[in-house]
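Example: TIGR04388 family protein.
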Amino acid sequence: MLEGITPGIGVTYHPENGWGGSIGLGNTTSNVSIAFSKEGNTTLQGSYSIGHGVQLAGDYTTNGAANIGFNYNPTGEGPRRDWNFSLMYDMAGTGLSASVGYTNPNSTIGLTSTVNRDGLSTSAELTGVSIATNGPDGFQMDEINFAEQNINAAQDQTQNDQNKAKLLASGDFTPADIANMSDDDIQNALDGLPQDEGVISNLLSEIGDYISPNLSGILAVGGGIATGIGLLTQFGSLGGGNRIPTNLGSLVESLRNFRRREDESTSTSDGGNRVSKLLDGVNLNWDLPNLGLSPDLLNELGKILNQEGYTSPTAQSNAGSGIVNFLKRIMFIPAVGYPVSSGNTKDRVVDTQEKPKPGEKLPPPKEPKSEDYQEMKTKVLDRFFGKDGSTIPAKVYLEELLKDSNLSPADKNYLRGYTQSLYKDIKSYATLKKDYENGKIPDNYKPKSTFAPLVPNVQNVTMIEAAGEIPPGGRDVMIGTVTGFREYNIDLDRKDLEDRVDSMNEHNKLHPNYHSSDIQIDKAKGVGVDSNVRYNILKEGKDANGNTLWTVYSFHDADNIHQFTNRETAELFVNSALKWREYQIKNGIQPVVPLRINDLSMPGVGNSPYVSPLDTSLDPKGHHHYASAIDIAFPGSDGDRAINVSESSNYDREKVKDLIKIMAESVPPGYELVVHIEDKAVKEYFSGTEIYVDMEKPHADHLHFQLRKKN
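Written out as structure tokens, the predicted fold is:
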């Protein structure tokens, strides 16, 4: 099954995960591969042919992600040759998914459409690696994983070699016959041979046979690959953040004995011994070019491997100095530490970013280079500097452009940030305009770090507009399928709302210890005039399945008058509540608890009886004197509410960070999230990111969120 194997090798670099790599063994239908990095996660992938064009496929990552399912390809040549139909189950995320795809066997260019609970997405692929995707979130160019391409190219080469070997072994074809066959001719000839069903144990045994004498040398090619696989075989797993031992010789020696069968203990191959002796005492240095391995040593490794009959991922078997040249191609540039590649894309080994972990802090985004982005940027600049003659502001014009744009969500957000940065430097407008007329493009935009979504599979929902005028006494409204809101006409219901302010006054008067003050406010001033702040969040909200998404921790029903907000904030809150529930379920957190809310704003942004320490006037406007404030209780480690940052034993700082990230995931375009919390560690954690966190008092017993329009 693994005769004529061409190993696939890839070297990667990630700013946070460090150096890593991939190695793969097998063909297009039965294979195993592993990808890892110095500080990141490890992913093990495998496929096994069970005959008649069906393969059992699966993968597992040390962060808990796992998929299992089946591929069906009528040709029996694997998912990257002609048509393929797939049914997979994501055990830690999107659940069941189905896909259909076609790949041209000659060009290796393919198109695959996938349906899961998030909707339909279609990806363009090259050698099985996605290069662009059009899905529910729009069109986007994907990060090309060249290391994975190397693995796939090696599997394709192995499949080709094994197909020819099968024809030769049948006795019906001579080497000359096979050499003159096209790919279609070879496939037709294979169809006429008896099918090789095989069993899983045979596959594993043959992989073990191959690893025993060969893998020690192959792993040495990548340096970092050898140490990663060595750790895996010695300790069973390679989790994120583990420090990797650096004595390469001892690891290679242990690899030589991996799965060696007793009846093969007299193997005549001494390649593994020669490699082990060559690397004995060699220590890798992750801070030096080539991991501290000299070019002479790498060349010597190549010679040994070539003499033993091993090939590079695309070299022909025993092709002279093919392995030596391949080793030279994965030499690292001393100045920057990045791998270089030859013009052959199949042999290319370059840096590639792993899929970030949920909630992981990401580096600041880089400016897109696509023609569509650059064309739209030019239109925005022309508008900002008055070149196109229109008086509509550039930031307003941009939103109109984006409505019909094919830019990805990330590219749209970058252009929004760039456009907003122009207004921050408005004092230098004349200078900027003159520079622009002379061909100089403003480049003052410094984007901040963001976070990978914690719950990327939960789509944001919006408010369902009710038809007709708002009746007296208000009406219930829904956001998506979530209930728990009532919409009022502030002017029409002003008297009833003022009576509710009086009820809150009375409650505060009777129970002053429950509040920071027993101040009574003019009920007329308790109801403002901002008609946008007309949505009253009720004491409890539920999703379509009846699950409770939030409750209140207010002291009295009368306090509900202090829970009004605008549409943007209401949608932010509901989407965060939905994601908070999914976050707990996904991470196995028990019990699954709803968010607990307290004060928002007064109706119409009226005055509040609760005095802000920054506003001690006799007739105070009080706190939350704006449209978008939300107070949410600290989530506790035991599922209960944590009362205080420093005094509650169940205060869970990591959950607090995650709740802030989840709120930030639903911030609408044109806004930024502001958070008040008296926790210095949390403030410092979010420093330099798009989420603004400060320690404004008094916020030691709850989280304060608000939306703030970007300038």
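The two ends are 63 Å apart (CA to CA).
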